[in-house]
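Lab intake sheet, docking and co-folding queue.

SAMPLE TYPE: protein with bound small molecule
LIGAND NAME: fe (ii) ion
LIGAND FORMAT: SMILES
REQUESTED OUTPUT: full 3D complex as structure tokens
PRIORITY: normal
SUBMITTED BY: R.K., bench team

The fields below were copied directly from the construct record.
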Amino acid sequence: MNRIKGGNVYQNEYQKRCQAARDAFASRKVVNELFNEEVDPKLMKLFMISWSALSSGLTQPIPEYLKRAGENCAKKGVAEMAAFFAQHTEEEDGHDEWGRDDTRKLVERWNKEEPEFPLNAEDMLKNNMSPAVKRYHKLHENVIDGDSPWAELAIDVEIELITTQYGPRLLQSCVRSMGEDSLADVSFLREHVRFDVGHTETNFETIHKLITKHPEYTDALVETAFKALESYADFLDDAMSSAKKIFKQISASVPLGFGATSKKVPISLETD
Ligand SMILES: [Fe+2]
Ligand SMILES: [Fe+2]
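RESULT FIELD (auto-filled):
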């Protein structure tokens, strides 16, 4: 696990109160399954495809959300947070395309390795707004348009912290299931693991300064952090259930050459 310097340096009310939310995230079934259990290599490949496709949906409106959060902070006279969000907007630009590119590369890899069960990346990308993705967007909307638009920071803090804490292990799982060269096809994850340590340091410092100046903001920040972590675990759930649905279809079919089916299996990425 990567160590975040700020996690030790900034022991404040926010960090203390968020521990319960981070623990709840860690104990979610899907998180345990992905990070503490042995996942079938094929299921892992499908998870990464579905995670990348849904990540493109998840990240699509984020630059717009950050821009609006900044504008609303400016309107409420919280200039430092207006500046923070304005700067962060650029960082998150184009992430949806990034997720799309990885999805296409991973599907291409899958189709080479599993020619009897071809997947269609474009179909998957058409279905990238799963129920949890929509709920995650709604959370942003509620925060930005609510009384405490600066609480958007708590979503940033927690999601980027997840990347630093869980991302390296997910990369290791990619290498185990698809080989070292698959790292080229999970660039969205790989690069976030590389950069979110620095972003998390900045986030922790920003939140520390904000609640030192405005201790009355802490409640809204903590409340948003709880919702963000729950929402991201739901998102992982959606990605995993899509992957499992495909995995089940595959496991139930006998590939060409074993006599049971001569048809290519039509596979879709839809969440219930
Ligand atoms: Fe990012
Ligand atoms: Fe980041």
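REVIEWER NOTE: The two ends are 33 Å apart (CA to CA).
SIGN-OFF: pending second check by T.M.
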